[in-house]
Design a protein that fits this description.
Two copies of one chain form a homodimer. The relative contact order of chain A is 0.14. Chain A has 274 residues and is an alpha+beta fold. Chain A has two domains: 108 residues, D-amino Acid Aminotransferase, Chain A, domain 1; 159 residues, Alpha-Beta Barrel (D-amino Acid Aminotransferase, Chain A, domain 2), CATH 3.20.10.10. Chain A contains eight helices and 14 strands. The interface between A and B is large, with 58 and 58 residues.
């Protein structure tokens, strides 16, 4: 954790959030999850830039990027032997007090994550209820902000598991594709990768952006495109991409098995996670 | 806090939530705010019943009502001299571990609360983006659940203050009335009190319900009714009602001053908070 800009390391079992902190009482803050590979955190500048954007949008004067980097370095000072997930949590802090709460943690990757990356995922589409343009017109709906208020995202995941699936693709009220609860959706039509526009209020995915930046040199075109569930069924490949799991191929969508695509090894190589 | 069903009291400055607890990291849990008057918590059964419904909907096996009541009694064992707010927070607990985290706090009422109860509030209407029927069809959107993921509710409050107002009435995508970020909306047409239906995904307001239950014997009729902002402008009285602030009269709506109503003392008396 960061206290007055200084790093303080505590045992994982030691509580760190006050009962009056607005993260546990109101989900009021922002977070990022980074993959640690061979002891090195990936895409640190992209994650810290998004965390800064989230904090600014929420009106939280959080740590500087240099302070976050000191926290990351301290968390990784002891060698991490396997791949791990590093989480950064920024809270508005204790209600009524100045300042903020800034916490970092490192955890091993779950077996589920590794299995889903390797073998793909069964996905259901669930409506997020909002028309695709609702959040762009209403900044208080926190479109594009990776906030700590993720109860709906987690409830959607539970709904997916109740239906025998692993994960979710949210759709808008009109049936347009949005994103996963913790991932971006990418699909291939021929040798073109597509993803929905951030004007729908979805997060700007750091892994989706890295994948698209690497796609051109590898011979793949990229497009930002409003898509539908029908287009996913017809696509040549569908993935949920995120920082920790990487590109997980969607092998079943709303109960219909998809034919595996031979693009997945390339997409995973381009994300740098595989 | 409750630990294995036993009450443990800690100093308010002592951190109580782990960095891996799903309340601070994901807003994954539920809460209630109770008013304490003359040392006595109000509407305990109604709040504990709603907390139980929230926990069940979230799939969190929280404390029993008897355990919560022991926590409340312990928190109020030392006399509370002025009115206070007692908060109960239930978290899904530490990620990957069985169990939950259950916390209670007692704080003095803010000066703002007392001023708003006495002098009324300026309110702006903000869209919550959802069609009025979106949440009833999609339980993962957590309609009717008082979850810890309140970042949108707080952001709406900041938006109101940026516009020079005190509070918000959320509307649906079609412009129907929903609720405040931390309150129910009630309006009077003649001697009839109206409030929107819970089928819109709003919370069942414990104070609104207590007010409506007390209204009949006091000569006021009550109705559950989809309403519009235009109907609020035309109403004979408008209030945001909640457990801690009670009935706060809306004295300005979207920048238009409302004529004060002489119903407010009666409405406040019927809520038992004034």
């Amino acid at each position: 954790m960061l206290a007055d800009g200084d790093v303080r390391l505590v045992d994982p079992a030691t509580p760190v959030f006050s009962a009056f902190d607005l993260a546990p009482t109101r989900g009021d803050g922002a977070f990022e999850s980074l993959l640690v590979q061979a002891g090195q955190p990936r895409k640190v500048p992209a994650h810290l830039a998004r965390l800064r954007r989230s904090a600014t949008a929420l009106g939280i004067a959080g740590p500087t990027s240099a302070e976050w980097e000191r926290l990351i370095a301290a968390l990784l000072a002891e060698p991490v032997e396997t791949d791990a997930v590093l989480k950064l949590v920024l809270s508005r802090g204790v209600e009524g007090e100045a300042g903020y709460t800034a916490i970092g943690t490192v955890s091993p990757l779950s077996a589920d994550i590794l299995r889903q990356r390797r073998s793909g995922i069964a996905v259901v589409t669930l409506s997020l209820g909002w028309p695709a343009d609702a959040r762009a017109a209403a900044p208080w709906l926190l479109g594009g902000i990776k906030s700590l208020s993720y109860a709906i995202n987690l409830a959607a995941g539970r709904q997916a598991r109740e239906r025998g699936a692993d994960d979710v693709i949210f759709t808008s009220a009109e049936g347009l594709l949005l994103e996963g609860p913790t991932s971006s959706v990418v699909w291939a039509v021929g040798s073109t990768l597509r993803t929905p526009p951030v004007s729908t209020g979805i997060l700007a995915g750091t892994t989706q952006q890295a994948l698209f930046a690497a796609a051109g040199p590898a011979g793949l075109a990229t497009e930002t495109s409003a898509g539908t569930v029908a287009e996913l069924h017809a696509a040549d490949g569908v993935w949920l991409v995120s920082s920790v799991r990487g590109a997980a191929e969607v092998v079943a969508l709303d109960g219909r098995t998809r034919s595996p695509t031979d693009l997945t090894p390339l997409v995973q190589r381009l994300t740098g996670i595989g």
